What does this fold into?
Amino acid sequence: MKLVNRYIIFISFFLLANHQYLFGQEKGSYDTVRVYAFVTATGDTIGESWLPNVMVEGKLTAAGKKYWAEWTRLRNAVYVTYPYAKAASRIINEINLQLVNVKDKKVRRQIIRYREKEMKKQFTDQLTKLSVYQGRVLMKLINRETGNNCYEIIDEYKGFVTAAFWQTVAVIFGGNLKQAYDPTSKDADMEKIVKDVARMYGYPG
It folds into this structure.
């Protein structure tokens, strides 16, 4: 037993004395690597290091390209038409305030015609430059801002015949004055864009 113990002690001293020959240099260039210290929320200190940035590239699928093309087109349309929708909401509120105590139909028509002339003078040039697609987006935004679709607004101020006429024109061009705004379903993407564009214009959204 004593012989075994002496043998183990001898082997241990031999390994320690000849470590640099058996296992290489006594201290390699990567034996000690300095790293940043990171203190955790519980007060622990652990080593921290940073990996180099890696650029990951991927190709859009045909469906992805189509989606982002449609998103960009919609965003551009909202960006262009949103101020007009806000103006429409403001003007309609003003007209409603003017008409609130007016019972005489003739006087009501005079007020509406006067405001109509103002709106044509102010907005006709800009609105005639809108594309059909932008016009559809504008109708949805007017519904969003006023709570009424364009058919209801025209019917209220200009009468059923005028509303029906413009509804026919809208249908011919692939539109619909009666279209509703649905921010939780089919118009969810538009709603996200509207909130972003509203912040850009300084509106509360």
